[in-house]
Every structure is written in C-alpha cells, then in structure tokens.
C-alpha cells in the first residue's frame, strides 16, 4: 500500500514541528472525510441505480452524437493548435 502524499506531508511537517498529536488529528480528520465522501457516493450510486440505468437508456442517441462531436472537435483542436504552433515558429 502506498501512503497518501498529503498525509505523508502533514505527518512530516507535524514531526518536524514537534506536534505529533496535531498531525495525527489532522490525518484522522482527513480519513473520516474520505470515508464519508466515498461511502456517500457509493450509497447514492446504489440507491439511484435504477434511475441511472433508465436515464442512460433514454439518452443513448444524444450521448452517441455528443461523443462524436467531442471526438471531431478535439481532433480539430489538436490539429489547429499544431498548425498554429508551426506557423508561429
């Protein structure tokens, strides 16, 4: 397991300042927030699953068209920026 970079920073800073308890409290608060956020999203997803599946089936054609527009638009943007960079140089 890889530790969270922010948690590592907080604990390193707390140890350097000699306030280990404050670092542990901040780490515990961050952990509680992550648990609440991830758990809340999981609960919302499980409760709203049937509505989400219904929405996905109703908007299939719109999502297909939007996907095609985004693919073509992204390709044209990359080509345009590349051409602009080439002309500018």
Low-confidence stretches: none
Mean pLDDT: 93
Number of helices: 4
Helix content estimate:
over 70%
What is the chains' assembly state?
single chain
* Strand/helix succession: HHHH
Alpha carbon gyration radius: 23 Å
Count of individual beta strands: 0
Structural class: mainly alpha
Using the alpha-carbon principal axes, give the shape. flat
- Please outline the major beta sheet: none
Number of domains: 2
Strand content: under 5%
Quote the distance from N terminus to C terminus. 47 Å
Topology:
Elements: H1 5-17, H2 20-47, H3 49-58, H4 60-88
Helix pairs in contact: 1-2
Which features would summarize this protein structure in a list?
2 domains; mainly alpha; 89 residues; flat
Walk me through this protein's architecture:
The chain is an all-alpha fold. The chain folds into two domains: 15-58; 60-89. It is 90% helix and 0% strand. It is built from four helices and no strands. The mean pLDDT is 93.
Condensed summary:
The chain is an all-alpha fold and 89 residues long. It folds into two domains: 15-58; 60-89. The protein is 90% helix and 0% strand.
